[in-house]
Amino acid sequence: MGGPGDPPEGTPEGGPVGGEDEYRSVVFDESFVRAARLQESSARERMTDHAPAVRRRPPLRRGLTRQAVILVVLILVAFGTAIYMGVRHPYGTDEAQQPVEPLRMTVIPLSPQGKVPGGADAETLFAHSPAALYEIGAEGIPLPAARSTAHFSDSQVVAALTTAKDYLVRSSLYPEVLDSSQVRPARALLDPGQLDQFDQSVDHPTADGRHAPTGWLVRFDPARAELADPRIRVQGNLQAAETDPATLEVTADHTFVYALRPTGAPAGAQVSLFTVRRQLTFRFDRDDLRLHQAQLVVSYVQAGPLSCAEDSAGHLHPLLAGQTAKAGGPAGTNPFATDGATALCGTLAAEAEPKV
Predict the structure, then answer these.
(1) Distance CA 308, CA 304 (A)
(2) What pTM was estimated for this model as a whole?
(3) Helix (H, G, I), strand (E, B) or coil at 142
(4) Neighbours of 314 (CB within 10 A)
């Protein structure tokens, strides 16, 4: 007689012994059932007319979810961007970065031939000097028409000219720079590669052609002279040119005329004029243009009336109304003329002084 699990007729001939078939070991777990393509309709569904006994299930979605795909794409984009930024300059310059050249400077004191002319007011002195028709302040430093070069756009040329003008204004016209109380306004416009040289010039001035503050700035000895009129007269020009595919150069040639009086003098004290001609060369790479900074590479300065016997590296020590120089120099030099001076100390030409 068969066991409780066997059919009434017994085990079919040829079937496995003990009533076990070859499929009994297969376990249909929940995931297998859910993955089945056919699903039996429920009793309620079969009561509906024409409802099939079984129906097809929609195929299961396999693979990553939408959020996972988006996350993978973002990671790949960020990784690719990091590699690109690491091997290529973000501003598209393929040229090798040029080292910053130190500033080369020459400061030439101009000694008066006699007593320094003076007057009761600055306006009269200006009217009787070669600076009579000069503009006042930054108006005397106009920007020329900017034209693109082979490798620099109009806007980049304008940026170079504007930065050069800003440096001239800050280093030649700012009262806090002129009275030696500040250097920061001009320093802030220099390429970082020149800051050590600038700081050493200010902290340890020396007339070695590299470390004189008066090569970087116009600064008067605060114990000797102060401005008698804030309206400084200025005339000059700026020019920009491309020197190589990676560099713009701006040359500046300006004459500044200051009205001075003795420090702490009363209002009625005699006023005299002091003239500084600055011929500067600025250099700009693309980083300088973007960051509004400059490399000052050449500074050629003529200033007077000064005494050639005094050191003009740290400050300019003006000779004021009625004073005379302790020592003279070679042939007279006129800072208003367009020719360049060659002497390390010159004599201030009579035609450069006001006629009073």
Answers:
(1) 10
(2) 0.72
(3) coil
(4) 19
216-269 pLDDT, tens digit per residue, is 999 999 999 999 999 999 999 999 999 999 999 999 999 999 999 999 998 789
DSSP one-letter string for 207-230: TTTTB-HHHH---B-TTTEEEEEE
Is residue 23 over pLDDT 60?
Answer: no
CA 192 to chain centre: 9
Helices (H) and strands (E) in the chain, counts: 10, 10
What is the DSSP annotation of 231-261?
EEEEEEEEEEEEEETTEEEEEEEEEEEEEEE
Secondary structure string (H, E, C) spanning 99-118: CCCCCEEEEEEEEECCCCCC
Strands 272-284 and 247-262: antiparallel
Positions of E strands within the chain: 38-40, 54-56, 104-112, 135-136, 225-244, 247-262, 272-284, 295-304, 332-333, 346-348
